[in-house]
Amino acid sequence: NTSAGQGSELQGGVTSVAGAGAANTASSVSSAASSFSSSSSSANSAKSDQPTNGIAASLAIGGTAGQGGSGGAVTINATGSILTQGDLSDAIFAQSVGGGGGNGGSASTNADGSSYAASVSLGGAAGTGGIGDTVFVTATGNIQTLGLQAAGIFAQSVGGGGGNGGSSSSTTTGGQAAVTFALGGL
């Protein structure tokens, strides 16, 4: 007999998770708890008329997302005359845009022990958005636009938005005590 009571059984759950990112692939994390069992008899299984004291634990961590790529520098040197005649027809359109950050991987755990159970789940972190770089426009000629909402020079630098933190869920069931903790990604 063990100090845990009549016979002792430790059962572990198996969990694996993966995350995804827009610019880079997120890392994947897997964890597993091995199954162990013991009893006072020489057989590896408990008799049906003996109570068992099962203990279960489960852990999952979502993958961290990739960072968005950076926009490159833009330089335009226009030296001639420019004429546009359609609606939304910009004469010069110069833009540097950073990529959006990836989404953190989700994590989910479940632990089921006949006596005690503990489960921890942590969602993966979001990726940061990339930066927009400098935009330079030099125009020395005439610029004329005849359409509606047609800009003569449109120059813009835009940083990418960050991704979303990974979701997280955690469940446990246990006869005497069950503890669960879940935290979504940042």
Provide the gyration radius in Å.
29 Å
**How many DSSP-defined strands?**
15
- Structural class comes to mainly beta
Number of helices: 0
Low-confidence parts, pLDDT < 50 over ≥5 residues?
1-51
Mean pLDDT equals 76
For the report, how would you describe the main beta sheet?
5 strands, mixed
| Order of strands, widest sheet | 4-1-5-10-15
Strand content: 35-45%
Rough shape?
Answer: rod-shaped
Q: What is the helical fraction, as a range of percent? A: under 10%
Provide tags for this entry:
single chain, 186 residues, mainly beta, five-stranded mixed β-sheet, two-stranded antiparallel ribbon, disordered N terminus
Brief overview:
The chain has strands at 8-12, 14-18, 28-32, 36-38, 54-61, 74-78, 82-84, 92-97, 107-113, 116-122, 135-139, 143-145, 153-158, 168-174, 177-183. It is an all-beta fold. Mean pLDDT is 76; it is low at 1-51.
Structure description:
The structure is a single chain. By secondary structure, the protein is mainly β. Helix content is 0%, strand content 44%. The chain has no helices and 15 strands. A 5-stranded mixed beta sheet has the order 4-1-5-10-15, with no helix packed on it. The chain has a two-stranded antiparallel ribbon with strand order 2-3. It has a two-stranded parallel sheet with strand order 6-11. It is rod-shaped, with a radius of gyration of 29 Å. The N terminus is likely disordered.
Q: Layout of helices and strands, plus pairs?
A:
Elements: E1 8-12, E2 14-18, E3 28-32, E4 36-38, E5 54-61, E6 74-78, E7 82-84, E8 92-97, E9 107-113, E10 116-122, E11 135-139, E12 143-145, E13 153-158, E14 168-174, E15 177-183
Parallel strand pairs: 1-5, 5-10, 6-11, 7-12, 8-13, 9-14, 10-15
Antiparallel strand pairs: 1-4, 2-3
